[in-house]
Each structure stands twice: as structure tokens, then as C-alpha cells.
Amino acid sequence: MYEPRHEFYETDDGVTISIFDKGVVPENVSIELSPRSLVYEHGDKKLTLDPLTGEIDPDCSDSSIGKFKVEVKLQKKYPGRWVRLVGESSSSDLPPTAPLSTPTPSESMRPRPRKNWEGIAEEAINAEPEISPEDPNAGGDAAVNGFFQKLFADADDDTKKAMMKSYQESGGTTLSTNWADVGKKKVDVKPPEGSEWRKWG
Which residues of the chain form beta strands (DSSP E)? Predict the structure, then answer.
């Protein structure tokens, strides 16, 4: 027997457990629920969660079986957050009517400290490494963008029209400065080698 991978998420009222079990045969699945435990069995796989952090209502809990995972939805007996799935005490240690502790209004309403976003941005800018003029890759995207902006700004009207038309019609895969060539026909999309162009939407 080995334990299948599982994960969970919760709300105040319930817990949903996803048990990942490829090739599930519904007739061979066994799920046993008690107020403080869950036992899942399928073939040579077994998952035992005992004791659960809090009490559940087995009669109001249910499950659904898919091809790759089984979802078990547990109804909590008392509202509140568990944070983890398995608790430390057995059901005999918990009073039957004791609700799980929930944060008091004063705790949950306490204001959080505000982030200084301007200070963070300034730190990030100051932390950028100095660019060496000898580095052939100096500037990265910023240098490339600067080059194209300068090219466009210094160009005549025909060159600007050619650049805009070729870039737009090719989906950003071609940039031409030759209006005599681009002005006559539609510019084809030329994706990089090994890529495939797909139109979305």
C-alpha cells in the first residue's frame, strides 16, 4: 500500500480534498468518513487522515470521482479555519460541542502596515547594475528600444509609413523601412524559425 498525492483548500464551512489517483475505477473506490477521520482506498493506494483538525459532518459530506482525481468535500461541523488537515489530538480529547477558535473581531480588524511603494521602486532603480560601454549586450531591451525610437524619429515620412505598415501587417514579425516595396502589397507574417503563427480571437 502507498499513499496517493493529495492537496486541500478550505472555506469557513468546508474542506475540499483532491486525491490524485490516475485510472480510478469508481466501483473499487472506498471512502470512509467519521467525525474526525477520512480513509480513502483504491487498489494498492490508501490515504488515512486521522485525526482531522476539526470535526466534520459525514452525512453532509460528499465525493466525486474523475479519471485522474477524486474530490472529497467535507462539511465542517463548526465554522472556522483549520490551516492544516490533520490535527494533533484524537476525537476523545475534543469536547463534542467545542467550536474551533476563530479570530476575534479586534484581531481580524487590526490595520496592516502600509507598504512604501515609492521607496521600493527607488531601491530597485538604485540596485540596477552599472552598464559597461565595452559590453556588447549593454542595455538589453532598453538599448534596442532606444535604437528603434531614434531610427523612427530621424526617418522621413515614407520610412515611417513603411515601418508602421510592415510592423502592423506582419504581427510584429517584420520591420521594413522601404516604402517603395511595402506600399505595393500586404506584408506577410514571418514567424521566427521553429515557430508557428496563430491568430487568436
Answer: 6-10, 14-20, 29-34, 37-42, 45-49, 62-65, 69-75
* Nine cell digits for residue 80: 472556522
Distance CA(20)–CA(2), nearest Å, equals 12
Report DSSP state, residue 56. Answer: B
The torsion angles phi and psi of 110, rounded to 5 degrees, stand at: -60, 130
Sign of the alpha-carbon dihedral angle for 13, 19, 20, 22: negative
User: Nearest CA to 86 among 98, 74, 102?
Assistant: 74
User: Each residue of 18-31: pLDDT tens digit?
Assistant: 999 988 888 999 99
Give the strands of the sheet with 62-65, arranged side by side: 6-10, 14-20, 69-75, 62-65
* pTM listed for this prediction: 0.46
Helix residue spans in 2-156 (DSSP H): 105-108, 117-127, 140-154
